[in-house]
Amino acid sequence: MHIRFIRTLLFALVMLSMSAASFAQIGISINFAPPELPVYEQPLCPGDGYLWTPGYWAYGDDDYYWVPGTWVMAPEPGLLWTPAYWGWGGNGYVFHDGYWGPHVGFYGGISYGYGYFGEGYQGGRWDNGHFFYNRSVNNVNVTEIHNVYNTTVVQSTTVNRVSFNGGTGGISARATVQDEAVAREKHIPAVAVQTQHAQAARTNPEQRASVNHGKPAVAATPKPGAFNDGAVVPAKAAGAPYTPPANRAPVQPAANTPAAHPEDNAARPAPPNTPPETNRPATAQPNTRTETNRPATAQPNTPPEPNRNEPAQRPQTPPPSERPQTQRTSPPAETPRAAPEPQRAQPAARAPEVKKQPEEKKQPEEKPKKDEKPPQ
Predict the structure, then answer these.
(1) Rounded Cα distance, 3 and 16, in Å
(2) CB-hemisphere CA count at 13 Å for 133?
(3) Residue-wise over 178-191: b if at least 16 C-beta within 10 A, else e?
(4) Does residue 355 lie within any of the structural domains?
(5) Which helix (H) or strand (E) holds 221?
(6) Which of 1-5, 147-151, 171-175, 347-351 has the lowest mean pLDDT?
(7) Which site from 121, 248, 253, 295 is most exposed, i.e. has the minimal number of CB atoms within 10 Å?
């Protein structure tokens, strides 16, 4: 007994050390609201210490499916269950998962029934390590379970079958200051039998809203996972007529449009392939441009200007006829002209220098003649 108590105590300490935020919600958002809650009876409580966890609509494989309500043994004495709920998140309906804690927190104002009427829990309470059931809202066999009481619950909210908070047609309830304080407490997520129970509902085609149209064949079970038990309760009716939309894809892939970003990233490397191609001909062109620049130095006036204007006029239609001719003549003409042109420029520069020198020599010849005349 002592070893078992120590194990349970250590388990409670480890789980209570986890933050409630880690269990606040599942990362999924749906662009259409879940069906309304089906009408069903609560199965008989299987024994002392079991707490009622209401059924809810979950989502998977592009469809809502009903997770049956069931009786679950509390993981530790003193813990209560806060149900899961759907809430409008701005661009879709976000699923907020349920959790165990010392107090019942905000669950969207959804009226699940059997003690969960939109705010708090009126189905029972803990006292000295034992859970006492309110017979007015729970199906309990008093011959087997004696820790019971009978308190009439006055519902302060309008009872309806809406299964989501916010958005179009949703419950308009908001978390109170007390609910926010409860949200900051240490919580425990759904236990293993609860997750297995939800997984079994997901793999059962009859639980899908597109198949049962809001009226599941298994609405509640006496224990988690007991889908074939004789005490299984089917839904009496759907909360409202339900027709699944044609497009049942979640919003998450659209929000995950990061898939589109890699496409953009794939498109971005394509343009860099083209600029280097333009840069490579640019490297090839500077070789030709250097050749055109060298004759341009030899002929600073006319040859470089038509050559530079040609690339600007190439997109025009009329000049291309003339340009290929100039291009065909220019390469052969440039190579021979490049050599002789600098030679012509050099003698042209030396010739005027020779003409200037004789003119200067003639002037000194005249000056001595003038000087010689005065001594005579």
Answers:
(1) 20
(2) 24
(3) ebeebbeeebbbbb
(4) no
(5) strand 220-221
(6) 347-351
(7) 253
Domain carrying residue 288: 262-293
Which is more confident, 184 or 315?
Answer: 184
pTM greater than 0.85: no
Residue 90 lies in a domain: yes
pLDDT digits (tens, 9 = 90+) for 48-65: 999 999 999 999 989 999
Amino acid found at 315 = P
Structural domain contains residue 48: yes
- Indicate the pLDDT class of residue 8, thresholds 50, 70 and 90: low
Tally of domains within the chain: 2
Longest distance between any two alpha carbons in the chain, whole Å: 168
The secondary structure element, H or E, covering residue 262 is helix 260-267
Note whether 280 and 151 are same-domain residues: no
Q: Is residue 301 part of a domain?
A: no
Residues 138 and 39 in one domain: yes
Please state the separation of Cα 311 from the chain's center in Å. 48
Confidence tier at 13 by pLDDT (50, 70, 90): very low
More confident residue, 169 or 349: 169
- Looking at the structure, do residues 174 and 276 belong to the same domain, yes or no? no
For 157, the 3-state DSSP assignment is: coil
364/376 Cα distance (integer angstroms)? 20
Which residues in 110-145 are b (16+ Cβ under 10 Å) and which e? bbbbbbbbbbbbbbbeeeeeebebbeebbbbeeeeb
Q: Are residues 154 and 283 in the same domain?
A: no
For residues 276 and 247, membership in a common domain is answered with no
Cβ–Cβ < 8 Å for 238, 38: yes
Q: How confident is the model at residue 246 (pLDDT cuts 50, 70, 90)?
A: confident
Cα distance between residue 23 and residue 13, in whole Å: 17
Residues 136 and 268 in one domain: no
Residue given tokens 């600029």 in the structure block? 275
